[in-house]
Amino acid sequence: MADSPKIIINFKTYSESSGEKAKQLAIHAEEVHDLSGVDIAIAPQAVDLKAIRDVVNIPVYAQHIDPISPGNSTGLYLPEALMEAGINGTLINHSEKPLKLAAIDEIIEITKKYDLTSILCSNNIRTSAACAALNPDFIAIEPPALIASGYAVSQCEPEIVSNTIAAVHEINDSIPVLCGAGITNGDDVKAALDLGAEGVLLASGVVKAEDSKAVLEDLVSKI
Hints:
223 residues, alpha/beta, TIM Barrel, 10 helices, 8 strands, 39% helix
């Protein structure tokens, strides 16, 4: 289990978090981590991973990896190549990159083989309980309807968070649960932690903000 609550920033494919802007956002995240002591991780696009790893030391996650071995695959994300770029872990099964159960299981096994952190995303309580049986390092509950809505699941639908935690821990009480969807400020983070979540996963609330560093500072302000 994490020593302190995690804030994971998914860069997605926004123009505000691509190329040089991705590097600057990563630097802001590390600066806030250094000042606050709060565990902040980032998940940039694959094309930016190496450049970002060269400028920050906070955990850097892939947005996705594919359950493949080196060989004749095209357009997929090879785990070994992403590891060479310096990843510490990966998101799995984000609502914008859904996977079949067999693929999820294979990817989790790959993360265990290479000692990578696995953050398995889920869209509802029942699916989260099923995910727990696969033994990822984290489960992140993100109701799709609230993603990028500005309405935080931790405040608008807190029962989703608390019931997900209960369902996951009924299967495996050692798996920390994160929550996402609509998280934008420190009050949203505090509400998530008060419900029993170990941290949050968010994207646009930071990435598309006019002052991303100020938003990051606010996110950690009530931890």
